[in-house]
Amino acid sequence: MVLLSIDWTNLHELLRSLYDEMMPLCEDMASVAKGVAGIGALFYVAYRVWQSLSRAEEIDVFPLFRPFVLGLCIMFFPTMVLGTINGILSPVCSATSSLVEQQTFDMKKYQEEKDELEREAMLRDPAKAFLVSDEEFDKKIDELGWSLGDMDTMINMYGQKAVYDMGEKVRQWFRELLELFFQAASLLIDTLRTFFLIVLSILGPISFALAVYDGFQSTLTTWLSRYICIYLWLPVGDLFGAILSRIQVLMLQQDIKQMQDPTFIPDASNSVYCIFMIIGIIGYFCVPTVSSWIIQAGGAGAYGQKANGAGKIAGNGAAAVGGAVGGSVAGRIKKMF
Q1: Is the pLDDT of residue 232 over 90?
Q2: φ, ψ (nearest 5 deg) of residue 286
Q3: Is the dihedral of CA 141, 171, 173, 241 positive or negative?
Q4: How much is the pLDDT for 110?
Q5: How far apart are CA 131 and CA 156, in angstroms?
Q6: How far, in Å, CA of 57 to CA of 53, rounded?
Q7: pLDDT (tens digit, 9 = 90+) per residue, 302-337?
Q8: Average pLDDT taken over every residue of the chain
Q9: What's the rounded Cα separation, in Å, for the pair 271 and 277?
Q10: Radius of gyration (Cα) for the chain, nearest Å?
Q11: What's 117's DSSP letter?
Q12: What sign has the CA pseudo-torsion 148, 151, 153, 156?
């Protein structure tokens, strides 16, 4: 399959570069926001000064600095606002990214060791060695004669070999399909995260400008909470992937320990691996909800509910396909032996 040869890391890096390339658009939007904030600052200061004069009260100067501080943030929005937030949160993303890379590397290493031990265990079984080794298969064929009984045994061996190879190809195809869905779910979350961050970054100066006006002060805190919440989608997703990888590493270590016993015959169906891949596909759609638990942001929860619903539908479909394919393959293998 062509899609399975995609380098998913490059796609995620492409989204990072897309975010950086879109940031200069903030400056164009800042010029518009300056005019909006300037008018708002004029009304903000004039209203409070005239209110204090009409009541014969002293003018409190400190609250009047608010529109000027917001205006300063708008003027240097890419550096002062986005640079500060990204600078604080980027170490969190770097830490979780290194964590998931380490766990994935360990999982690949143990998976290769387990596959080798499974092959050796199958070779130790005289009744099944010819299924995994062409040399053993040719050796058993050469030992047979041309009698009716030997011919029947030869036909049976060819049939078992064909069924076993077909089962291996089906399991490998289904495993690659689940891996494709798993990587696609991760890419979907990262793509939506990048899109939302770009929109919030470009229109951020307008939100800051509107926050100058009375009645729109909450716009500032809402923008900040949503930006941080969506920014945390990536580290939360990395933590989820690292946890899944760690669980699989522990299971691989347990399987490898059992395979040290020469009498142990492993089950090569990889059903547990497929189950955790399905869990991962569903779990990635829960990332927005988990991020909203860290910092509450209105609006992100509604998307999280829709994403969770889509994840359940996708998970049910993947589980149904997995059950049908796994059951069919397992049934044929049991009949074969």
Answers
A1: yes
A2: -95, -5
A3: negative
A4: 77
A5: 12
A6: 6
A7: 545 554 454 444 445 444 444 444 444 344 434 433
A8: 77
A9: 10
A10: 30
A11: H
A12: negative
Q: Of 147 and 227, which is predicted with more confidence? A: 227
> Residue 324: what pLDDT?
44
CA-CA distance, 258 to 275, in Å (whole number)? 21
- Tokens, residue 192: 């939506």
CA 292/CA 300 separation, integer angstroms: 7
Rounded to 10 degrees, the C-alpha dihedral 310/300/72/39 comes to: 100
Max Cα-Cα span within the chain: 119
Which residues lie closer than 8 Å to 225 by C-beta, 6 or more apart? 295, 296, 297, 298
- Is the CB of residue 285 less than 8 Å from the CB of residue 310? yes
150's CB contacts (< 8 A; 6+ apart) are 144
Look up residue 256 and give its two tokens.
């490898």
Q: How far apart are CA 33 and CA 144, in angstroms?
A: 87
Cα 275 to Cα 272: distance, rounded to the nearest angstrom: 5
Name the phi and psi angles at 226, rounded to 5: -70, -40
Query: Would the CA dihedral through 236, 242, 245, 250 be positive or negative?
Result: negative
In contact, 318 and 181? CB cutoff 8 Å? yes
Q: Can you tell me the mean pLDDT for 294-307?
A: 59
SS3 107: helix
Residue 244 tokens, joined: 């899944």
- Token output for 325: 């394919």
Asked whether 147 and 316 are in contact (CB, 8 A), the reply is no
Cα gap 108→50, rounded to integer Å: 70
The amino acid sitting at 64 is L
